[in-house]
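quick one before i forget lol
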Amino acid sequence: MLLGGLFLLPLLLANNYQLSSLKVGLIFFGASIFSSLASLFVGRLLPNYGNLTLIYVGATLMALSLLLLYSFTGVAIIELATGLLFVSYSTIQVALNSLVPLTLGNKVGLGLGVYNLANFIGMALGPAISSKILDATHSYGLAFLSSLILVWLIFPLLFRLTIPKNQ
């Protein structure tokens, strides 16, 4: 849902807050720098906490950022939520990039290919769904709420992965 947010946030900032393209770009630049630094930190945390824990953390941060975007207004809140959204995505990506090879044994190439395919499909669907919701409702809040609902669906799936299998 990151790309849905990346699609909606510049529109929101330009249309509702009349920010110039330069100011919107600077907000995204700051969030990108913060995200890249966070990914280095997350990479160091990975051996100590594990992939699934960091995916939980990333999904929680993403849900928090979408909740902020849905619930509050103001450029400062949007800047904070944008930073959280970027950091959450990089946290999830770092954890997934190290988890996929561990789960597939000798079929790592196939697993990474399927992972990348799913990632590309998600990058296409996020903005498409967000734009359709925005077009139908004319509400940025509802578009962010729908993204939030999709992120909440991750938690039962993650919980299911953490339950030990009885053998």
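fyi The mean pLDDT is 89.
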